[in-house]
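ok here's the first one, seq then struct tokens
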Amino acid sequence: MDSTPPSSSSSPFDLVSSALGRYIPRGQAAAPGPAGSPADPVGAAPEQDLPAAGRQEQILGAVNLDRELRVTHRNLEAPVFAGLDAPTGSPFVALLPQGDVPTVTRRLRQVLETGEAHVARVQRLRRADGSELVVSMSILPAAAPQEGLTVSLIAMARRLHLYAAETAIGTSLDIGETAQSLAESLLAWGDVAAIDLDFAVWTGEGVTERAQDRIRLRRAALVPDRAWPEGYVTLGDDLPGEASRLLAQAIRRADTPQSIVVPDRAAIERVLGSPRLVRALVPSDRSVGVACVPLVLEGDPPVVLGVAEVWRRADRPFADSELLDLEELVARTSHHVDLARQHQREHTQVLALQRRLLPRSGGGTIQTASVYQPTTPDSAGVGGDWVNSFPLPDGRTALVVGDVVGHGLGAAATMGQLSMEARALLSAGLAPDEVLEHLDETVTLLDDAETGLAAGYSALGSTCCIAVYDPVSHRVALSSAGHLPPILVSPDGRAGPLALHPHPGLGAEFALREPFGVHTFVAPPGSLLALYTDGLVEDPAVPIDEGIGRLADAVASVHPWDPLQQAARRVVSEVMPARQRDDVTLLLARMIGYRKEDTATWRLPARDDAAVRARALVSALLRQWRTRDGTRDSVLLLVSELVTNAVRHAGGPITVRLIRDGPGLLCEVGDTGNGRPRLGRAGLLDDGGRGLHVVHRLTTRWGVRWTETGKVVWAEVVR
């Protein structure tokens, strides 16, 4: 081939072809060996067999195409391109993997139309035997007056392939995707590649040195994707215990992780010693060899994360240089596998916490159903959304939805802390706005220099919405801290968002803080309340009001007899944006309340005879309810003590309420006082302070909740 510099009128094909003369040694033909041998990622002939002058340089090729993208000329004489079948008149796209055909075709036609070159595209080409060659492909327009294209191909040298593989493997924190990327990169050295990981790595557990007889390997990746023989270990399967132990022992010779090569099928059968293990591990019936390379986490001592297996035909044995390349690639990417393991561990922990916070049964006065759908693992799996519903000790039900800023373990830890704090404060009788005040202070404290920002996480701007449902009055008290407005569907089918006063959220700057308001409304039996996070309705393609409107329409379509959990899933599937960008959370609550015949309320003036009147009213009702004599006596004494305390210490009108709830009776006495009753230790000669001791002994539990006009002391007695 003539290497004389061409004239200025030469086509790009001539320019590339003439340059090839400087890279292909004179007198050397393309290696006729096994076409497209995948044993060598840069050539069919082993590198050590090539003349020294041409080992590193034989990487250039060129193909000329007409306007129909058919091959008109080709120069693929370098040994690296052996096995690329591109006869004159054949479509160029026949060289491409099927999945790349649309994209490359679009690029080729774009260069034809615009005349602008497209350079340095990393591309895989298919050899005749099905293996692939990685090249850097540039598409150049033909020089006038010629038409068509010139495609120059630069076979990526081993170093470039190692770099590209490492870069691709490190792009995901999902352990399955990481293992798959590693296996796909290893396929350049063989016909089949598999990654078998220690089960503790697969599940994200801590990796330690363990006894060899406890080793357990799981297949995390397997390429290529095709039908495998019966009994072969495929993706997600555990390797047989004997195979796991054999692999572990083989790669840990002299207590040091080492690569091993088993050259042919006969040797493999001798090592495995069992037809069952041969069926499980050997991917073909023909004679094959395998290279096993340990994935090692450096340390003292080093820890083996798993094993990479590369299989190929026995007539192409692994060269020493190839084994070194395999070891280098696996060594470079083992830390990515460990990072994915750590992410898997965090993902599992956060998801367990998230599931732990999901609502349980709402009791007989309210039905609840929730849906929580995290974002993809690449965004750290789960975030700070939480949803909770729980009965309060006084018979009411609390509904809480929150959205903590960010994703990952920091957001989950803050989410868990705020969720548990909200539950404790609500159970202690605080109103929703008072609970939000405490959460606001907590977020501010968590964000100080020592505990929040120093840990690389800030929860400022988190949102929360709290609703408390009273099943007797059917009233809901709701407060919001920067959260989107809940949707209320009345029994007659009318639906819409509640009109809430906007609030900047939790942890706002002091100058921006505002009092948390309380929105009170009536939710008759049959009403449906939907609380949610912004991931359900926020879509960059539509305004937020439109997303909320779609949610209102979907919730309004829920039939009163629909199973609520199924309805919640249906609403999410209808409303959720096509491309999920954030965690999606929905809580549906269907109000039921108590039957009228199970409750009674009396309003009494704060006079000395209030206790007597209360006992008479309660006694008549208990007879009507056919309450046992012992229970009736306890309730009458309880009412007498609570009303007497209210008259003595509070004043104002007194409200007495009795609720029959399953096996229990709930007695409530409300007044206008703001003092908190406390159970103290009374002396033998003390006249006061004994009423609460009586209450404490007669009841299964008792407590106080605060109202806008005072407080309510409640107590529960077993019927």
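and now the second one, same deal
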Amino acid sequence: MADRGASPLSLPDDWPDHPDPILALNRMGGFDWDLDAGVMQMDAQAHEIFDVRPGEYDDRPESLESRVPSGDALRLDTVVSQALKDGSENYGAYFRVRRRDGSLRWTHTQGYIRRDESGRPRRIIGIVRDATQELGESEARREQAAQEDVRRRQTNVVQLTTAALAHARTVQDVIDVLKDTHGLTHLGATSLVMGLLEAGRIRLVAEGPAGSLIPGTEVTGIDEPYPMSEAVRTLSPCFIDSPEEFAERYPQLWQGLTGLHITSAAYLPLIVQARPIGAMGLLYSDRRGFSAEERNILVALGSSISQSMQRAMFYEQEMDLAQGLQQAMLPRTIPSVPGADLAVRYRAATIGGSLGRDIGGDWYDLIPLPGGRVGAVIGDVQGHDTHAAAVMGQLRIVLRAYAAEGHPPATVMARASVFLDELDTDRSATCLYAEADLATGVLQMVRAGHLDPLVRRTDGSCRRVPVPGGLPLGLSAEFGRLDYPVGTMELDPGDTLLLCTDGLIEQPGADLDDGMETLSALIAVGPDDVRELADRLIEVAEERGGGDDVALLLLRRRALDSARPGGRLKRRVTPGDPEALAETRRAIRTAVGAWDAGDRADEIELVADEMITNVLMHTEGSAIVTLRALTGGERRVRVEVEDSSSALPRRREAGESGVSGRGLLLIETLTDVWGVEARGGGKCVWSEFVVAKGPDPA
């Protein structure tokens, strides 16, 4: 070992005349090497270091060759020669000395080179000392540093694994973390096995390399002779230091592991609150035994893994409960509706990439209604938990009940908002309710803070349909009774209505309008079949991922069979509900226009309004209004208004200034035919209008 960086010696000019006492005190020997004469004198301490007696050394350096191994001598000569050539004032080097008993001891020498006026080296004055203890201490420090480095790496693995486990949500997530490049394999393990305790038995949830599963060990009892069972039974780690020990203690298991070349193993119990939940095993193929420090590190890791595994098990239990609750709350089947092709889809959110599925309050529903109508619902309750799913289920039920009672869309939405507000929950919800008359294509929609719907036309174009909106459901206490304006449009045969939640729209870094445009473009080029289109949209949502649920409802209007009536519209109007009356008037106007009633449209609307008003004024119940487009030899429109009163309408004299009493006169004048029919506990007043002579143009 060269020591070229040694500081120059500070020696008196007459050295070595009197150096012995000083050097001896420091356990050093001195030498004076006359380079011209080839003579190197050494003092007694130097003789001791080289282990030569005074009579054995003749002041010639060559006499020491037997004391210095050839490799060390060559290295020492190289250091000295280089120092003499390059003008150095000193040199230093480590070399070994072979003593009389054959042992080798490390020695250090340092020389000071004296030169003449021309720079030629003439003399080397130096010292030698025993460096065995010094290098031994240095080696010990290196070994200690190496051990600390190993300990630091192991601690880093523990920290990295613990940090990664903090993000694991499911049992499989925990297993994946442990098998990952930052997992336990960094501790040198060949493979990992893990089992969870279920009903007094251990079920294997992770096994080592492919093909290493031993038949009969998928489920084992805690009393069986296996190391994992022993760890669970005793709540203590089980360390196996050698193949011989493995074969002796667990012969049945060892027979299945002989092909894996296992040399040692560590089985750790997974304990939470002093109770076992399972065990894990680390199998090694390149080591024997475990130091006390390694055992402590593995036990600490086992404790961290236990906590993560318990969290994962609790999470999966909650997920199973939430998913079961949500599946129970969503419609189990979607009814077939004459005149429409339907498709619904639901996708649970993915949280944190691939770390499992979350549960939320998104829902859809389809409600068959009288008169060939159908109600379509899409909604989203705030939150991602079992409470959101429970609120969603209750809200879906009341929306279905209000719609089935015959209330118009605005009333359905307003009552649902009041219900949610009175439910004593802090959750709000967005919702869109669309009521479609598939015979006429009339579509009435109300929106409570939700996304606008999309409509794809038969030419393949797709556009967003702006719907007047109200506040989300559940805010009635803050803002009073909420009003929900109604948007009306016509859905032509072949047109497709799409309702969805924002999980299908939202994209990282893009605003809502951009998301709607992207979705519209995707729908425009999508399949015509609504089921295939729904599958394609969900596939895109899966590829994109995201932290929100997706609920999707597609309704495509089909052309009705020609043997069926030309169309039908049915509404219920309750006393004291002016919104329902106004909506019914708009629906009648739209339906009559769709049936091409021509110049009789105003007459039909006027007569229908008079018949409804008579029921609301002269009876105590609701009016059930039905409009039918009849086909045959001539096309006709039939208006029926039912009520629960058995009293027949009668003609009254209005007088010159009277504002009432002209209802029947108006009906007789404007209709082609009218009449009254008994209907169980009430009656039906009807009237018909011929809108076209001859055969049906269809």
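notes on #2: Confidence is low (pLDDT under 50) at residues 4-10, 352-357, 694-698. Residues 292-329 form the longest helix (38 residues).
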